[in-house]
Amino acid sequence: MRYLTAGESHGPQLTTIIEGLPSQLEISIEKLNDSLRRRQGGHGRGRRMQIEKDLVEITAGVRHGKSLGSPICLQVTNDDWKHWTHIMGIEPPEDDTEMKRQISRPRPGHADLVGGIKYNHRDLRNVLERSSARETTVRVAAGALAKQMLEQLGIHVTAYVTTIGGIHADRSIPETLEAAEIAERAAGNPVYCLDEEVSKQMVAAIDAAKKAGDTIGGVVEVRVTGMPAGVGSYVHYDCKLDARLAFAMMSINAFKGVELGLGFEMANLPGSQVHDQIRYNAQDGYTRETNRLGGTEGGMSTGMPLVVRGVMKPIPTLYKPLESVDIDTKEVFKASIERSDACAVPAASVVAEHVIAWEVAQALLETFPADHLDQLRNAVNERRKAAKEF
Q: Are 305 and 223 in contact (CB under 8 A)?
């Protein structure tokens, strides 16, 4: 299973084509659009989210509510395109007005300068339009399809915020909740946090940062429950499930770190407080007494919940801009402001949820036969049975 995305931040639309999804999967457009809605939410988001009302259109690969097994095409129209037709038009401009609007001032912390050097763009808008986090819109849409498939297999993916601006939620809370409860509680919270009291402090920190013309980052956590054991592989480095989950998390704009289970905390603990002791009973089969390794051993799923965290840096575009250098004049200037989010960590948790869902779904389809949904479901259930009887 794979997909490609196309589109620019202020272009006419964003598109993804998905290949390899099993046939006979019931597809809910309402669930797709709910994922896009959550991506646009969260306290701290800027004016762009008030302009765009993201809705997905399925233009291929689905008939009468079910996947066909052929490529699926999803499109999201950019409502603000009508104001950008001259700036982002496909045809050459009729005069040199647009040439005078070229961006020669790279913003610190963005792809502007390095992207311009790589692709030889003197107008840095050619870089920032594609490198924008706006592209994650259709990545979320693709992940929402993956989530619908996973749910049919009894696998659930949820995400929530654990840290914003140095304020930490109680990380034991999700251990006491079912997946549906986690999803409901996160969706109903202004910063998608499960800790109600701490979330109030996070909201206050975001407001303070915005007032100061600054931005703050944080940490998101993704939890995958219902995974069968043995997805991934120890045989080849690029088939290790934890490596692929780390790649998926790090592929999100502005993410600079990732960990599974106890993660970096393991550096401070002895092995006796890191590894998960194995238990067995006839009802559950093999389990772990703890889940400190985050649901993987040797690059494979253990059957315990996958727990993946990613850290998002503060958004680099500030109301009190940092200094940079004009690529034409080489003069120092104060960086321009292209967006106004004080904190996008809640929205990023939704992106993380969906890119992890995609990676898990892809790993499952590489492990089990999956021309159609029933075939996949039977194979997954057989693995669960075999693992219990092993």
A: yes
Using one digit for the tens of pLDDT, what is the confidence trace for 100-152?
689 999 989 999 999 999 999 999 999 999 999 999 999 999 999 999 999 99
Distance, CA of 295 to CA of 32 (rounded, Å): 27
Kindly provide the b/e burial profile for residues 165-202, where b requires at least 16 CB atoms within 10 angstroms of the residue's own CB: bebebeeebbeebebeebbebbeebebbbbbeebbebb
Domain locations along the chain: 2-389
H or E element, residue 184: helix 179-187
3-state secondary structure of 283: coil
Q: Give per-residue burial for 212-231: e unless 16+ CB within 10 Å, then b.
A: eebbbbbbbbbbbbbbbbbb
Q: Rounded CA gap, 155 and 360, in Å?
A: 10
The pLDDT > 70 percentage for the chain reads 96
pTM over 0.90: yes
Q: Which residues 6+ apart lie within 8 Å of 7 measured at CB?
A: 13, 14, 15, 78, 134, 135, 138
Distance, CA of 334 to CA of 213 (rounded, Å): 14
Strand segments, DSSP code E, in the chain are 2-6, 13-19, 56-60, 62-63, 66-67, 72-77, 156-164, 167-168, 218-225, 255-260, 278-281, 285-288, 296-297, 300-301, 306-312, 323-325, 332-334
Distance CA 38, CA 203 (A): 17
- For residue 366, the surrounding DSSP H or E stretch is helix 345-367
Mapping DSSP to helix (H, G, I), strand (E, B) and coil, where does residue 140 land?
A: helix
- The CATH superfamily of 2-389 is Chorismate synthase AroC (3.60.150.10)
